[in-house]
Design brief:
This protein is of the alpha+beta class. It has 4 domains: 15-69 and 91-260, Glutaredoxin; 272-502, no CATH class; 506-705, Glycosyltransferase, CATH 1.50.10; 706-784, Glutaredoxin (3-Layer(aba) Sandwich), CATH 3.40.30. It is 44% helix and 10% strand. The protein has 28 helices and 23 strands. The strands form 8 sheets. Strands 3-5-4-6-7 form a 5-stranded mixed beta sheet, sandwiched between helices. Strand 12 (413-414) and strand 13 form a beta hairpin. Helix 10 runs parallel beside helix 12 (362-379), helix 12 packs antiparallel against helix 13 and helix 22 (651-666) packs antiparallel against helix 23.
Length: 784
């Protein structure tokens, strides 16, 4: 690896590689900010960053004027600090341009004295006209440390005056613009060795980055400069070394662009052995004591255990199955799961899943629903089905717009206190419950006088707080009613507390994930209300975020849903103009789930329209793979092919799996060819770093052999057809598709008919089928 150096005062820096992981958990993963980044990257360095993950930089050239010192030590761990979600009367004397925006995150900053712009041409034009650097700050509304930095710096009149005088300041909601976030997060990870939110980056007026970091504190402490010192040093560097900064920023852009144009490796062959090796590698990170993978902080990352269940089935690895079920059991017992209200928090700060970071994200709960449905099917244990029901009960109660859209997230804090809404003291419980209920509940949840959660960064932490987790699960049957009544009373009392902030924007991508979870749960669990919620959600998305292309309708008048445009965000009656791969891919997967749960031809037609639109706007026919942003985007310095399955799966992974499924249903060769070419593009990734692509591994597993087709002939709304449909979904057979005999299904399926006037199920490989049946139990046996 080459060193980055300059001929003057620049020092050499060395590199070490670590697994990629970013997140909003403050300085736990945020290194001290070094001096201004020397941007003379090698292509090899950037390839390593984007391909293998995060780069830790142990020393950096001092390009910034003296005053910002480098420090290779991490700041002390400060897990949490009070969140500010409202503004004082003093700060409300300011109102900036963000007041015009829809994003809850941007609106949180509308009364800052900082002269914020939204991401767009108005800000870019001002920067070019005045030749000022851009200060770009990226976060999201439920990000704890974003709130902290707002309180400490963006509400500071002194900081605001300096920013307003010397920079063009831009705020971005990463959930609305993950494409913008991806570009600048990659740069910050490469230049500082760390990533997370808030993400703060300095750009040229042409949007090319030259320095960045994550959280900057308000004063000089722990060897780290204050945010104002950073601003002053960047401003001096821009004034005195302008040409060097511009040249270096252009080199970074070129190298990033070169990397994103990589070609598939023709020497690598994707076989069953890749799946087998990947499963073994993933199991190396398994925690046999507490479940989960890796060390604290622990994220559920559902696509990893979901892949392992596929791997275990294919390779007959019972240890992997036990590991996934143990993980599901421990997560559901831990404090990361809300035992009173349902739903999972984003991650656990400890290895035991006990103390969570309390924010709840829609995408986590959608994927975890799918995981717990898988766990139920694999094990037959109702407790896993009950967890899935608990998640969906929470989402439908607290995260659903009256017209059917799903909200994005709930914050971790309420009334300025981390976890206040969720935690309990023994005194509170004693005053609420009968003595008998109290004794059962404190034993079951392990509630102690001292508590198990303290916010050490809060100068006035709440005392004796208990996060509820299941410590003694074996409640005698005679005490079951007491526990139930205790939980009902606690739930009712908690409902009177001040709730955390709700981010009520509706994102097409995350809604697609939840749509699919509800659709599948409706047939696996036999809950009609879930199907109704999924149908209502799809109607909402089609009405508010989908726009058909009139020219496409003219070209194909037979299509129920011609090609069109799917927009990413809706809130408060308005949508944005952004198009993203993950919106198309995630919704496509959800609509396929809904079709397989209902066999409604209109849903299949819409899935085909989505797939065709996604291919037209995002697919790279030359090299394979999908760009994250649509062609023609004018506010990005490059287009990126995202390939990391983290807390959210990547658009490429979901697009690939969805196209393979849709190809099996429709026999569209173009869908399968695009998926296979995408797999070849990422073949090296799949073989060398499978931990980073568990969702793409699911697509590879699906592609290795022809999937089974379960064809149900007859009226799909009849009682017997519904029984057959539920039976088809109640067997863990991930490499199958379920389809009807009408609409856009493949030709052979259309030829199959009812037998003896009754709905009939056919289990087929290609055009070879097992004996048809109208008996649901027999169908289940055929699929095992």
């Amino acid at each position: 690896m080459q060193n980055c150096s300059s001929r003057r005062e620049d020092a050499l820096f060395s590199l070490k590689f670590e697994p990629p992981h970013v997140g909003c958990y403050g300085v736990l993963h945020e290194a001290p900010e070094p001096p201004l980044f020397c941007a003379h990257f090698t292509s090899r360095l950037l390839s390593a960053v984007l391909w293998t993950g995060r780069v830790s930089i142990l020393g950096l050239p001092a390009v910034v004027a003296a005053g910002v010192s480098s420090c290779a030590d991490r700041a002390p761990q400060l897990p949490f600090a009070p969140t500010v979600t409202s503004h004082s009367a003093a700060t409300r004397s300011h109102t900036n341009r963000l007041a015009r925006e829809k994003s809850p995150y941007l609106l949180q900053h509308q009364h800052n004295p900082v002269d914020w712009f939204a991401w767009g041409e108005e800000a870019f034009r001002k920067a070019r006209k005045e030749n000022k650097p851009i200060f770009l700050s990226i976060g999201y509304s439920t990000c704890h440390w974003c709130h902290v930095m707002e309180r400490e710096s963006f509400e500071s009149e002194e900081v605001a005056r300096f920013l307003n005088a010397h920079f063009v300041s831009i705020k971005v909601d990463r959930e609305e613009r993950p494409d913008v976030d991806k570009i600048y997060m990659t740069f910050v990870q490469a230049s500082s060795g760390q990533g997370g939110w808030p993400l703060n980056c300095f750009l040229t007026p042409e949007l090319k980055p030259f320095y960045g970091g994550t959280y900057f504190g308000p004063d000089d402490r722990h060897g780290r400069p204050s945010f104002l010192q950073v601003l002053q040093s960047v401003e001096r560097a821009w004034a005195t070394r302008h040409g060097e900064i511009v040249e270096s920023a252009e080199q970074v852009r070129k190298q990033l662009e070169q990397f994103t144009a990589r070609e598939a490796s023709s020497a690598l062959v994707l076989t069953r052995r890749v799946v087998q090796d990947a499963g073994r590698k993933l199991m190396e990170g398994y925690d046999p004591r507490h479940g989960g993978f890796g060390r604290a902080p622990k994220f559920p990352q559902p696509s990893q255990p979901q892949f392992l269940l596929r791997y275990a089935r294919r390779c007959h690895d019972d240890e992997a199955t036990r590991g996934v079920l143990h993980t599901c059991e421990r997560m559901a017992a831990g404090g990361i799961y809300d035992h009173l209200g349902g739903g999972f928090a984003r991650y656990s700060v400890d290895e035991r899943w006990l103390v969570p970071h309390f924010e709840k994200m829609l995408y986590d709960n959608a994927q975890l629903t799918q995981l717990y449905l898988d766990a139920f099917l694999v094990s037959g244990e109702r407790r896993f089905a009950d967890v899935a029901r608990g998640i969906l009960r929470y989402v439908l109660r607290d995260m659903t717009h009256p017209d059917g859209g799903f909200y994005s997230a709930e914050d971790a804090d309420s009334e300025g206190k981390e976890g206040k809404f969720y935690c309990w003291t023994r005194t509170e419980m004693a005053g609420l419950l009968s003595p008998e209920e109290f004794n059962v509940a404190v034993s079951y949840f392990g509630v102690t006088e001292a508590g198990n959660f303290v916010d050490h960064s809060d100068p006035e932490p709440l005392p004796n707080q208990n996060v509820l987790s299941i410590v003694n699960p074996n409640v005698p049957s005679a005490e079951g009613p007491l526990l139930q009544s205790a939980m009902e009373k606690m739930s009712a009392a908690r409902a009177q507390r001040v709730r955390p902030h709700l981010d009520d924007k509706v994102l097409a991508s995350w809604n697609g994930l939840m749509l699919g979870a509800l659709a599948r749960a409706s047939v696996v669990l036999g809950e009609e209300s879930y199907r109704a919620a999924a149908e209502k959600n799809l109607a909402f998305l089609r009405q508010n975020l989908w726009e058909s292309d009139p020219q496409s309708a003219i070209r194909n008048p037979q299509s129920a849903f011609p090609q069109g445009t799917l927009y990413h965000r809706w809130r408060d009656g308005g949508r944005d103009a952004v198009q993203l791969l993950e919106a198309y891919a995630f919704l496509l997967g959800g609509v396929i789930d809904l079709y397989e749960a209902t066999l409604e031809p209109a849903h299949l037609e819409f899935a085909v329209a989505l797939a065709e639109s996604m291919l037209a706007k995002f697919y790279d026919p030359q090299d394979g793979g999908f760009w994250q942003s649509a062609a023609g985007a004018t506010d990005l310095i490059l287009r990126v092919k995202e390939d990391y399955d983290g807390a959210e799966p990547s658009g490429n992974s979901v697009a690939t799996l969805s196209l393979l499924r849709l190809a099996a249903i429709t026999e569209r060769k173009d869908f399968r060819q695009a998926a296979e070419k995408t797999l070849r593009l990422f073949a090296e990734r799949l073989q060398q770093l499978p931990q980073a692509v568990p969702c793409l591994l699911q697509a590879l597993d699906f592609s290795l052999e022809e999937p089974r087709r379960v064809v149900i002939a007859g009226d799909p709304k009849s009682g017997l057809a519904c029984d057959l449909l539920r039976a088809a979904h109640r067997v863990f057979q991930p490499n199958k598709v379920v389809l009807g005999t009408s609409g856009a299904v493949e030709p052979f399926a259309r030829s199959l008919k009812e037998r003896e006037g009754q709905p009939t199920a056919y289990v087929c490989l290609g055009t070879s089928c097992l004996e048809p049946t109208s008996d649901a139990a027999k169908l289940a046996e055929l699929l095992k």
